[in-house]
């Protein structure tokens, strides 16, 4: 009888040990060198996790701006570029991680664009030079982008992980090593080593008769 109880106890202990840790949402807040919350910061966390198929991500165009200004996706993700404006846009990127161009279009292109290599992809519009957008493609299993309050929610198990931060205000727009991130029940605060003063995207310039006429002529000239 004692052997049976011991065998059952060992089996139960083994089952407990092999149960995977559940990922609970962890809140991370990002501030700049002056202690202000920063929007548009990408936090990626390295670790061992099963990669799930990524749904199609959305990078919209609204009011002549990319929405969101910063999008983080897993390597291999397809991104759709709908145009919610009533004018045409021509989206492109010359970034090494992904070079592509979507010719002048309205509505939503028939096929999304695949992002198969990690790295930063800077977006522009050939018609509206002030439009800037960023797609951060990462191999890391956990990542997120900070909101207006500087908050990011990560669905990662508690533990210690190597972390990386990225923001357009960083030197040469290069990712920075954020050290070892300790995730647990308590909120985490990270600091960018720069003061972020500029908006993520420039504001559209004031309309002028010449600019309006040029954009209309460009739009009407397309089939």
TrEMBL record:
The keyword Cell inner membrane does not apply. CDD domains: MauL (cd04221). Residues 1-23 form the signal peptide. SUPFAM superfamilies: Cupredoxins (SSF49503). Coiled coil: none annotated. InterPro entries: Cupredoxin, MauL. Keywords: Signal. It comes from the Bacteria. This is Methylamine utilization protein.
